[in-house]
Write a structure and sequence with these properties.
By secondary structure, the chain is an alpha+beta fold. The chain is built from 10 helices and 20 strands.
């Protein structure tokens, strides 16, 4: 008599979303998309929402979000019970901070917290202390990818072309230094927080009064800001996936309708930008863009995933604008769309990312933790 096939054990995935950054609501949208796409036959998905005060809450699939269908009103359900994490032998235990009672366990974390405290290495450091498997770049790659000043300096050191820039902190920001920066960069100038993504606090300035206003706003979000030369050219983006042997997607092109690829255009207004996927590029330029994206990924010590953004000048030169180590996963986000156009569906992409996280954890587990003389 034929024995029935044993059902494979589900992998316990902790989806972490929300967070304390200005991109809290974007993260909720990404989490909703990821949760809906994860194969529930393969994964037991635990919904871990981080509120704006930094508390972790274990949500229920039926009510973990409020106003989930409206990106302008979407919010985390704060009535969900609080949890905290404790390192375990093979899994991370989620326990109640009030009673100390166990609530669940996680085998691999899938962070979709965009911005500060989510993709800047902070959360990754915590997950490393928990000895947990997690999706995406590690502490170094996350931190470097988040700091646009350090990122550009490292890429420049590696011989990779970047856009012109000047970084300022509150201590070195003086009228004379600003005047010299404007002279070197020329108008228009973009001003942005150095450690924030998704165009929060970003301004395109064509005059000194506009620039001063943009600087004041950027300093509201970060202690370091970046002034960048506005580049006339096409906005080309490439998705990268992998650990030691990463591969690149087909390039896509962003055609902004908001003056530049703003927060509104990326996450709220579905008509805020046109996305040409794949981008209309000669075959040679496609290969060049993909190869350069992988060089950027490796130079910045990334793993798992990243989206690399370029400017393509009228003369055919590629300049790196930035890397995003935890790109958006909303229904209008570029990263999953690029992989879909490359033959990898959203569902398979999530499978691959979780597989890469577990692969990296197995590599680390083989390392020696003690010294024997």
């Amino acid at each position: 008599m034929k024995q029935p096939k044993k059902r494979k054990r589900k992998i316990k995935v902790g989806l972490i979303f929300g967070g304390r950054s200005g991109e809290h609501e974007v993260s909720l949208q990404s989490a909703k998309s990821v949760y809906e796409a994860l194969d529930k036959q393969k994964y037991d998905v635990l919904l871990i929402g981080v509120d704006k005060q930094g508390k972790w809450r274990l949500g229920d699939s039926s009510n973990y979000l409020l106003h989930a269908g409206n990106p302008k009103l979407i919010a985390l359900n704060k009535r969900a019970p609080e949890v905290t994490a404790l390192a375990g032998r093979d899994q991370t235990a989620l326990i109640s901070p009030r009673s100390g009672e166990p609530m669940s366990e996680v085998e691999v974390f899938f962070p979709v917290i965009h911005g500060t405290y989510g993709e800047d290495g902070s959360l990754q450091g915590m997950l490393e202390l928990l000895d947990a498997a997690y999706v995406g770049a590690g502490v170094l790659g996350s931190a470097v990818g988040m700091d646009k000043d350090v990122m550009k300096r490292l890429l420049r050191e590696a011989g990779i072309p970047v856009t012109g820039f000047k970084a300022f902190s509150r201590t070195n920001f003086t009228p004379a230094a600003l005047k010299q920066a404007v002279k070197n960069l020329g108008w228009p100038i973009f001003v942005k927080p150095a450690n924030l993504g998704s165009s929060v606090g970003v301004h395109k300035c064509t005059s000194l009064p506009e620039l001063l206003g943009g600087i004041r706003d950027a300093f509201r979000y970060d202690t370091k800001i970046l002034l960048e030369k506005a580049v006339k050219g096409r906005e080309i983006e490439v998705a990268v996936l992998g650990n030691d042997d990463p591969r690149a997607s087909v390039p896509g092109e962003v055609i902004p309708r908001h003056g530049f690829y703003s927060y509104q255009a990326k996450y709220i207004d579905e008509d805020g930008a046109g996305l040409e996927i794949p981008a209309k590029l000669p075959a040679g330029k496609v290969k060049e863009t993909q190869a350069l994206a992988i060089r950027v990924f490796k130079a910045l010590e990334c793993s798992g995933m990243a989206r690399v953004d370029f400017f393509l000048t009228p003369g055919g030169r590629l300049l790196v604008n930035e890397i995003n180590t935890l790109p958006g996963f909303t229904k209008i986000s570029m990263y999953p769309k690029l992989w879909e156009a490359s033959g990898l569906s959203y569902v398979k992409l999530l499978d691959r990312l979780i597989g890469l996280a577990l692969e990296r954890k197995r590599q680390k587990d083989r390392l020696k933790r003690t010294f024997e003389a």
